[in-house]
Amino acid sequence: MTNDINSKSRSGYRAKRKKTNIVLNSLIVVVLLLIIFVAYNIFATGNDNASPKKETTKTEQKETVQKDTEQTEAEDVTSTEDDSVTDPAAEEDELSEETSTTDDSAATEDASASEEADESQEVVTEDDGNGVRETEDPSWQPVGTTQTGEHIANYDKSSADWQEMLNAISYATGLDQSNMTVYWLGRDKSTTNGSFSTVASKDNKQKYNVYLQWVDGQGWKPTKVEDLSGNGQ
Predict the structure, then answer these.
(1) N or C: which end of the chain has fewer CB within 10 A?
(2) Tell me: the pLDDT tens digits for 34-50?
(3) How far apart are CA 94 and CA 103, in angstroms?
(4) Rounded Cα distance, 194 and 153, in Å
């Protein structure tokens, strides 16, 4: 009997011990699972929080670099604009100097041209030593004509050509045609389309040789007058 009791006691003790071990093992497993779950959440949350920070940091770095680049470019543009801007006062002074130089040059050229024109427009009067004064006046102009077409000098006293030549002679000498005696009026063989005449006043106190040149469409133009009044001819 005593052995049976002891066996039962031992069996009950072992059963309790197994149950206890099972419970303890279960608790240990549960604790381990909780630890793993908590650790996973901590690490996972930490990674999630760390990633945005890293991305934010990278984004901020990019924005900073971009801002620095834009600022540098803006400074370069401003520097370029500053370099290209000129002082208005200096530019005005330079323009004034150029204008003054241009005006001086233009004035000099105008003066030279005026002097040349004056020289070319001067009346040339020379004495040949025999009392004949030769005059050439560049201001003389053709006296006009009513003739058209090809011109051939006509020395017929009733022709329009003759009358126009008398107009040119009167224009060059100052003699009125009513106070003019025509001693000769004919072709000037020394030139092409030229005429030569010798005229005098009615009292013979004024006597001239007159050289004429035909200008197409404009009429006869005096080219030279020889005053014979002082040579006793």
Answers:
(1) N
(2) 888 888 888 777 555 54
(3) 14
(4) 9
pLDDT band at 52 (very low <50, low <70, confident <90, very high): very low
pLDDT digits over 73-116, tens only? 656 555 545 444 455 555 566 656 665 555 666 666 666 655 55
Amino acid at 206: Q
Type of residue numbered 69: T
Contact 188, 194 (CB under 8 A): yes
- For the chain, state the CA radius of gyration: 64
Distance between CA atoms of residues 192 and 160, nearest Å: 20
Tokens of 146: 């009513």
Would you say 221 and 136 are in contact if contact means Cβ atoms under 8 Å apart? no
pTM, 2 dp: 0.50
Rounded to whole angstroms, what are the CA distances from 165 to 19, 128, 150, 172?
162, 26, 17, 11
Average pLDDT over residues 67-72: 64
Contact (Cβ atoms closer than 8 angstroms) between residue 208 and residue 199: yes
Q: Are 147 and 160 in contact (CB under 8 A)?
A: yes
Strands (E), the chain: 124-127, 133-136, 180-187, 194-201, 207-215, 219-227
Q: Span 156-181, mean pLDDT?
A: 96
